[in-house]
Design brief:
Layout: E1 3-7, E2 10-12, E3 32-34, H1 36-51, E4 56-62, H2 68-79, E5 84-90, H3 100-114, E6 119-123, H4 134-142, E7 146-155, E8 159-166, E9 169-176, E10 179-183, H5 195-198, E11 206-209, H6 211-214, H7 252-262, E12 271-276
Parallel strand pairs: 1-4, 1-6, 4-5, 5-11, 6-10, 7-10
Antiparallel strand pairs: 2-3, 7-8, 8-9, 9-12
Helix pairs in contact: 3-4, 4-7
Length: 292
């Protein structure tokens, strides 16, 4: 039995993305949809769960009340394929103004509360902010191996074999489970469900988590990288929190802050990879890298 967690985000549709004077996205009266990369994460998680008997999927999103629509769409996709699936909506006024690190901390706490999970799937980045920061921050907070931009994926009992097309080359990696992966556009077909089918998802399939249920905080705009962070002892990861070479004494939250500040490249524990560059292969993309 394998447990999959999927993170999805609701964003303004296409050309409707616009920032207000506060720097936040304008959502009022704008058409909303699931971010395209998140659709791949949902599709792949459901596909993998359908292939392993007894597996299940839990879909998470953080946002206002309207964000439940992306959960209903993800759940409708899974239910239609006979997969055990449910949704968790993380929502609270205290979470307003969350930057990427505050978002990652809230989602990590939700995953920790609902877990443990064998695989956490996210989109490579959202199409509104386009930072790609939350997935690696989440992995650091959970003390899990992380690989980005997965375009090829094979599931094994205790590991994943993945192929990732990066800006500086193609990476083949073997990743120990549990792990966090972010999904590239070409990994699989996207999960798309019309509104009428979303409406058939039973309300009890979605549960809600508030900031108080996540822990003492602080959360949202009050959560800062270097100060105002919640007590690391209150965050109990699903795996041991100590990290080799962590600059802050092994605390996952502090290690994440240190990693974001230093921005030094470091191979994630649990990931073995090879990098090949400079050779053309069919379907390799604009830079022409190949797998090895």
């Amino acid at each position: 039995m394998t447990r999959f967690a999927v993170l999805v985000k609701q964003i303004p549709a296409g050309e409707e993305i616009e920032l207000g004077t506060s720097g936040r996205l304008i959502r009022d009266d704008a058409p909303l949809e699931m971010s395209a990369y998140c659709r791949r994460a949902v599709s792949k998680a459901v596909e993998l769960a359908s292939q392993a008997r007894g597996s299940s999927v839990v879909v998470f999103t953080l946002g206002p009340t309207a964000a439940q629509d992306v959960l209903r769409e993800a759940l409708a996709w899974g239910l239609d394929r006979g997969v055990e699936i449910r949704g968790v909506h993380v929502t609270d006024p205290a979470l307003a103004g969350s930057d990427t690190i505050a978002t990652a901390q809230a989602l990590a706490a939700a995953i920790d509360r609902e877990g443990p999970f064998d695989v956490v799937l996210t989109g490579r980045n959202s199409l509104d902010a386009d930072t790609g920061q939350v997935p690696p921050q989440l992995a650091q907070l959970l003390d899990l191996p992380f690989v980005a931009g997965v375009k090829v994926l094979a599931f094994h009992a205790q590991s994943l074999a993945v192929g990732c097309e990066q800006d500086d080359g193609w990476i083949d990696a073997q990743v120990r489970l549990p792990a966090v992966i972010s999904c590239a556009e070409r990994l699989c077909d996207p999960a798309k469900v019309p509104p009428a089918s979303r409406a058939t998802v039973p309300p009890e399939a979605i549960s809600t988590l508030t900031a108080a249920e996540l822990g003492p905080g602080p959360w949202g705009g009050r959560c800062q990288l270097d100060g105002g962070r919640r007590d690391p002892a209150a965050f109990r990861s699903t795996v041991p929190s100590a990290q080799p070479g962590c600059p802050a004494g092994g605390s996952s939250a502090r290690c994440c802050a240190g990693a974001v500040r230093s921005r030094r490249p470091r191979r994630r524990p649990g990931v073995r990879s090879t990098l090949t560059r400079g050779h053309r292969r069919a379907g390799a993309g604009r830079r022409g890298y190949r797998r090895t």
